[in-house]
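Posting this for the archive.
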Amino acid sequence: MPRITDYRKTDKLFNLNCFREVMSRNRYMLIMRVLHFSRNPERGAGVSKPSRLYKIDTVVEYFNNRMLELYQPSKQLSLDESMVLWRGRLIFRQYIKNKRHKYGIKLYMLTAPNRLVLDILIFSGQGTDSTPEQSHTEHVVYRLMENHLDKGH
C-alpha cells in the first residue's frame, strides 16, 4: 500500500481485514517506531566483502522460512517485480521511469493468487550467483521457485 494508514481503511478498495484483526494500530506503530537494524558483526565479520543486505538478511530469511513452513500454496503461483519507494542514498537504488515510484529498491516476489507474498528476493546488484549459461532472469526464477519445483505448481 502507498501509505501505512491505507492498511487500516474500511473502504471497498482498501479493505484488508487481516491487518485490523491481527494487531491494533497502536501496537503496530509502536513496533515500527522501535524497530531498528544496527551492526551485525557476526554476519559481516571475517568476510572480505559482506553482502550489501547483511543487516536485514536475517529478517528476510526468517520471513521466507516461516512462509514456507506455515502456508501451502495452491497450484497457481506468480512471480512479480515490485518497487519500494526509496529516495535516499543507496548504491543499489533503481530508477524505472514507467513505475509509479520511479526510484526505489527492487523486490522480486513469489505470490499466491490471493496476493499473499510467499518469498522475497531483494535486488542488491551484487552476488546474484548467476552463471554464464544462466541469465539474471533465470537465476531469479530458479531462486524463488527452488522450494516449489516438482510439486505441481
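The helical segments are 17-22, 25-34, 41-44, 57-70, 136-145. The radius of gyration is 17 Å.
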